[in-house]
């Protein structure tokens, strides 16, 4: 027996073994499979599985007969039939095909009821379909052609599968479609590769789709909307197209039906249903892909893909049909993209035809049509053109090169025509196509596209007549600069910066385009064409007044020219020839003399190294065009050339760095680092020694003559030393450690910080880590000795250095951790955020190192211990004991820091510490909840929260009764968010241990707090339930406020109480209030259509009888005999409602009016000042008393009043 057959049979055994394992399954159907299989195997004694296959078949077919009524051919035992069919599906896949062919009619007759019976369920049908699939795959060409003229043929079974492939049940339908795919993918041996049944299957699908499309066309829109049957019809169409995709993907779709299929699929794409359109496009994609593959595999002279493309081209819709044009164009793009993958050259040759086709649609006046046409051309150029075709010989053969040239010539001629007056309405779209063509064809666009560039250049230069195309024209010119290089574009469109005229128009507008689109070009273009312009313009600048407009314009042009230099330095193709000593020295002198140019020149120098290094290291991907125009070998030579000049460049950069202000020289350091990467070891050592000498002299001078108020030169030189640390040879490492030992003792914070950075930077390299390990004992001593002299500003750098040393410690040198852990603990409560984060990270690193099973703590080397004390093995428990010493510290700050450190370590290492140690630590820290120190209590509360969240139920549940009283004593403390933190912990405890357990152990004095928690929880549950029912549950878009899981565990949800209270308060305050505006006589008729006009969201003003009487008795107004309103003399002094009664003059009246009038707020908006008494007169009762009470309560502090969230401190521990 050969290996393939053995592997085949092992696959059967593996599947049967899985079925046997289901004997204990909780699912009845799976258990029944195993029972049936076990029962059958009890009667099979042969160990040869190849012989057992037939025995399995006979046994299962016999059981199937028992499940079916032999007279009525109906299923009488559905469960047995389902199990047997499931097992037969497995067996048939491994059965001899000869046996399946010989017993085809008998087996199909027995399987038929499992598919056709009305009571058959989906699992049974799926299993029967699997059996039928194996049966049909085994048939030969004679059986399919029915040469024996039998009544039961494979085509009858296939017809049943086709019907099921459109079944509304998804799983049944999917199984049937997979079976049809498998049948077509495994054709019987025959003279042709096509399956005998492919035509009948394709005809069935075409007929089904055609019937559905006719049905859709017959239903009017009105009737469709009334019956709401459009979704069902669309679903049926999608089912057919899924079947079509399954057939096409096998490569068996008949060529004779391709045109009919394309026609109908295009008709489907006109639908407004996006799922229908997507399904149609999926069919097209499969069609083109398979056709292209078949043409490559079988070498067909007239490939099917080209036939399909010709069919698509022949189905061109009218250029006024906005609905069909978009869909047809989308299909065309998909076809070209799929075709280009396997036949790139043949596809490329079709591009001129597409341009001619699209010209018709671009001539349309309909915006949707010509926009779709332009997008089609852009997509074809971008996705259907292979970069390999655009190479020069010898990368491609001469015939391909000439064929591509012919295509480019035809495309350029078409584009020239598209830029004519006839297509002026879509000129913007045409320009976008041209820009895409330049970007795609790159250097192959020269010379065929030169005429196009001239036309667009004239449009941009003649700005008055073509102003509306300015943006698109600049996009084209920018693409041309990217494709052909600025030297070609400047040759056609010169800048003419000096003495421009009508004949020689100035084109300074090209400079920003050169800056944005120049890459991988010649550096000589800048040196020869642009640099002389800078000198000429600068000479003119000197003769102009300082504040003149012309001077500012010229200076802007000069700045724009300089801004192009960094982009000329990005992968320049002529770096070795153009970056001469003369040019480099000119840049160096400008670095010294012109501060404003330092950023630009440093960026350019950095780009020379950075771009070539990235290219050599494969950072730019597989770019075929770039690889031919600028091979990697040439980039390597450019780096070697720069490496030879790196020493001189670094010397200049060092000097410039020392002359630049500290807050504006980061970019210089970045440039220095790039050149340090390519500097040879000899030059590096020499440069480093020079810097070390300068540093020593600077430190000596500063020690003797300190300069106050000026940045120290030693700190600046240390920056350079730190930068060089990663790149110096190993022979310079002793000097580095000597510098570290000297500078770390400095009292200057900047110097000290840089000293620690030497250790951090050196550890980033493998060789540096080895050097650190060799000097580790000396570094440890220095770090410990300088504990008391650490400057605040350098603490974060020191902690990072301690972390680095901790990670490098060998297993027998862990005493360093014991000597420095106190400092790390205190840093966890540092004011500076970086120091706090560094403290936590270092503490975790120490914990990991102490958890090393081979670790040893040599206590004899620690001051205060007996020199004879034996070594102690390290462990996490031992580390916890060491830290526990801080709990008896002299200061509250030390105790609080230790508790915070324990919270961090418990959170990180709770699974690695034994339960006894955790309980001891918890019991100790729990006692600190009874302290009167708020600082210690706050840390203890945070530790308790970590334990409640992180430790197991078994550990924490016994501690709850004692914890609650100690915790609740801080629930009455409102400062420092104690109350909210305690409440949040209790909420978490309720979730973890259950409400009943917490309630049973809750102190009665504080039971109201627990009741409030329960009420809030119930309210939130009701609210969530209501939102789920209504379907409008809000999705929170608020991100986490915390940097890590530990911070979230400590601080998360500490504001819940206030948020809930505020929410309740807002709900009460913002509850919709509506008022009824009644007339004086008649009550409001709620059935009246005008009722809404009498509903107001503001309280209407009501007048009492006295107020109405006052108005009626006002002596100022009266009515004459004709009913006209007349004004009388001054009113009685006892009746004075004038709001400006205190005004004594016209000026005061104006001031008072301004005071009460509108004012300008943010964004110049008008707003009115709010009065504390506003609305007091609108009360229904006690109108005169209300303003008085309002003034009384203005400064009164009430117990129940709470401040809003904006007053709450967001500061964390």
Automatic annotation (TrEMBL):
Keywords: Nucleus
Compositional bias segments (type: Basic residues): 1191-1213
Domain RRP12 HEAT: 363-660
Domain RRP12 N-terminal HEAT: from-to ranges: 24-217
Subcellular location: Nucleus
Annotated InterPro entries: ARM-like, ARM-type_fold, HEAT_RRP12, HEAT_RRP12_N, RRP12
Source taxon at top rank: Eukaryota
Gene Ontology terms: cellular component: nucleus
Spans annotated as Disordered: 1051-1074, 1158-1213
Compositionally biased spans, kind Acidic residues: 1054-1064
Main location: nucleus
Family to which the UniProt record says this protein belongs: Belongs to the RRP12 family.
Name under which the protein is recorded: Uncharacterized protein
């Amino acid at each position: 027996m050969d290996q393939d057959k053995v592997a085949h049979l092992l696959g059967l055994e593996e599947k049967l073994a899985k079925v046997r394992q289901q004997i204990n399954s909780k699912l009845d159907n799976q258990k029944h499979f195993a029972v049936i299989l076990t029962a059958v195997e009890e009667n099979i004694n042969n160990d040869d599985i190849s012989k057992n296959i037939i025995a399995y078949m006979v046994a299962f077919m016999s059981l199937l007969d028992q499940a079916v009524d032999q007279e009525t051919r109906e299923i009488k035992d559905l469960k047995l039939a389902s199990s047997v069919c499931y097992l037969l599906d497995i067996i048939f896949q491994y059965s001899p095909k000869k046996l399946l062919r010989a017993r085809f009619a008998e087996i199909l007759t027995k399987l038929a009821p499992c598919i056709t019976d009305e009571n058959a369920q989906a699992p049974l049908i799926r299993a029967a379909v699997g059996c039928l699939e194996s049966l049909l795959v085994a048939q030969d060409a004679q059986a399919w052609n029915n040469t024996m003229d039998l009544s039961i043929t494979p085509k009858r079974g296939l017809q049943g599968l086709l019907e099921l492939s459109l079944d509304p049940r998804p799983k049944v339908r999917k199984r049937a479609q997979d079976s049809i795919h498998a049948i077509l993918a495994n054709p019987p041996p025959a003279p042709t590769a096509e399956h005998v049944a492919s035509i009948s299957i394709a005809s069935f699908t075409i007929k089904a789709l055609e019937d559905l499309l006719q049905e859709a066309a017959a239903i009017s829109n009105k009737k469709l909307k009334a019956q709401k049957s459009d979704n069902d019809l669309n679903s049926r169409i999608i089912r057919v197209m899924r079947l079509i995709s399954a057939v096409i993907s096998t490569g068996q779709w008949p060529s004779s039906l391709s045109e009919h299929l394309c026609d109908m699929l295009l008709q489907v794409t006109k639908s407004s249903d996006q799922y229908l359109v997507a399904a149609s496009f999926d069919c097209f994609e499969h069609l083109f892909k398979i056709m292209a593959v078949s043409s490559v595999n079988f070498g067909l002279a007239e490939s099917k893909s080209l036939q399909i493309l010709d069919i698509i081209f022949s189905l061109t819709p009218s250029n006024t049909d906005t609905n069909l044009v978009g869909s047809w164009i989308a299909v065309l793009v998909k076809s070209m993209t799929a075709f280009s993958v396997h036949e790139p050259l043949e596809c490329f040759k079709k591009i001129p035809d597409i341009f001619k086709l699209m010209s018709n649609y671009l001539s349309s006046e309909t915006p949707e049509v010509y926009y779709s046409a332009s997008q089609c051309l852009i997509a074809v150029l971008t996705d259907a053109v292979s970069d390999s075709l655009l190479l020069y010989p010898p990368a491609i053969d001469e015939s391909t090169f000439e064929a591509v040239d012919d295509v480019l010539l035809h495309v350029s001629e078409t584009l020239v025509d598209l830029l004519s007056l006839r297509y002026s309405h879509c000129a913007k779209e045409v320009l976008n196509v041209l820009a895409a063509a330049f970007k795609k064809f790159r250097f192959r666009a020269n010379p065929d596209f030169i005429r196009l560039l001239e036309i667009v250049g004239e449009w941009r230069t003649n700005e008055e007549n073509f102003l509306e195309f300015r943006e698109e024209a600049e996009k084209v010119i920018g693409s041309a600069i990217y494709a052909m290089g600025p030297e070609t574009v400047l040759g056609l469109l010169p800048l003419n910066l000096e003495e421009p005229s009508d004949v020689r128009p100035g084109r300074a507008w090209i400079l920003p385009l050169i800056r944005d689109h120049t890459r991988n070009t010649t550096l000589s273009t800048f040196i020869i064409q642009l640099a002389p312009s800078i000198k000429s313009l600068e000479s003119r600048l000197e003769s102009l007044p300082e504040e003149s407009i012309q001077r500012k314009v010229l200076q802007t042009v000069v700045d724009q020219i300089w801004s192009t230099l960094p982009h000329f330095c990005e992968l320049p193709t002529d770096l070795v020839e153009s970056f001469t000593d003369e040019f480099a020295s000119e840049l160096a002198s400008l670095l010294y003399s012109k501060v404003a140019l330092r950023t630009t020149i440093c960026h350019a120098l950095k780009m020379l190294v950075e771009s070539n290094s990235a290219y050599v290291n494969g950072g730019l991907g597989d770019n075929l065009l770039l690889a031919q125009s600028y091979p990697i070998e040439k980039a390597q030579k450019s780096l070697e050339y720069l490496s030879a000049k790196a020493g001189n460049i670094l010397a200049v950069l060092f000097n410039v760095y020392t002359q630049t202000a500290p807050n504006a020289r980061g970019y210089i350091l970045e440039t220095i680092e790039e050149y340090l990467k390519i500097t040879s070891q000899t030059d590096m050592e020499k440069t480093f020694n020079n810097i070390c000498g300068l540093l020593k002299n600077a430190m000596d001078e500063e020690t003797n003559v300190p300069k106050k108020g000026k940045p120290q030169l030693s700190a600046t030189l240390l920056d350079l030393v730190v930068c060089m640390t990663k790149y110096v040879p190993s022979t310079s490492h002793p000097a580095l450690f000597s510098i570290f030992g000297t500078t770390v003792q400095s009292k200057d914070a900047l110097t000290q910080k840089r000293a620690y950075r030497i250790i951090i930077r050196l550890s980033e390299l493998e060789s540096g880590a080895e050097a650190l390990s060799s000097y580790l004992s000396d570094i440890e001593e220095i770090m410990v000795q300088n504990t008391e002299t650490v400057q605040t500003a350098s603490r974060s750098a020191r902690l990072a250095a301690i972390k680095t040393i901790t990670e490098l410690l060998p297993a027998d040198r862990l005493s360093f951790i014991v000597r420095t852990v106190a400092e790390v603990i205190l840093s966890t409560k540092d004011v500076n955020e970086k120091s706090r984060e560094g403290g936590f990270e270092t503490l975790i690193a120490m914990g990991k190192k102490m958890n090393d099973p081979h670790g040893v703590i040599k206590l004899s080397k620690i001051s205060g211990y007996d020199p004879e004390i034996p070594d102690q093995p390290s462990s996490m428990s031992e580390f916890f004991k060491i830290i526990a010493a801080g709990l008896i510290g002299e200061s509250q700050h030390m105790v609080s820091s230790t508790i915070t450190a324990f919270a961090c370590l418990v959170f990180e290492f709770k699974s690695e510490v034994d339960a006894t140690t955790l309980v001891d630590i918890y019991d100790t820290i729990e006692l600190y909840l009874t302290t009167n120190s708020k600082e210690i209590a706050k840390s203890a509360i945070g530790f308790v929260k970590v334990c409640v969240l992180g430790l197991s139920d078994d550990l924490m549940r016994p501690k709850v009764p004692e914890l609650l009283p100690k915790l609740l004593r801080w629930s009455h403390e409102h400062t420092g968010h104690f109350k909210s933190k305690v409440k949040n912990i209790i909420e978490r405890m309720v979730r973890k241990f259950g409400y009943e357990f917490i309630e049973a152990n809750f102190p009665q004095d504080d039971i109201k707090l627990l009741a409030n928690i329960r009420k809030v929880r119930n309210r939130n549950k009701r609210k969530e339930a209501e939102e789920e029912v209504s379907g409008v549950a809000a999705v929170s878009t608020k991100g986490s406020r915390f940097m890590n899981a530990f911070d979230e565990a400590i601080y998360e949800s500490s504001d819940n109480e206030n948020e809930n209270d505020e929410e309740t308060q807002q709900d009460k305050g913002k509850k919709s209030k509506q008022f009824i505006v009644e007339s004086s006589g008649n009550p409001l008729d709620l059935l009246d259509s005008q009722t809404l006009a009498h509903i107001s969201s503001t309280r209407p003003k009501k007048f009492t009888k006295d107020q109405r009487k006052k108005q009626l008795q006002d002596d100022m107004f009266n009515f004459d005999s004709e009913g006209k309103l007349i004004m009388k003399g001054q009113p009685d002094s006892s009746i004075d409602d004038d709001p400006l009664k205190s005004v004594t003059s016209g000026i005061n009246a104006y001031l008072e009016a301004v005071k009460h009038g509108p004012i300008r707020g943010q964004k110049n908006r008008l707003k009115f000042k709010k009065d504390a008494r506003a609305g007091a007169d609108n009360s229904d009762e006690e109108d005169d008393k209300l303003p008085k009470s309002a003034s009384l309560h203005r400064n009164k502090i009430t117990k129940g009043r709470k401040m809003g969230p904006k007053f709450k401190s967001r500061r964390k521990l």
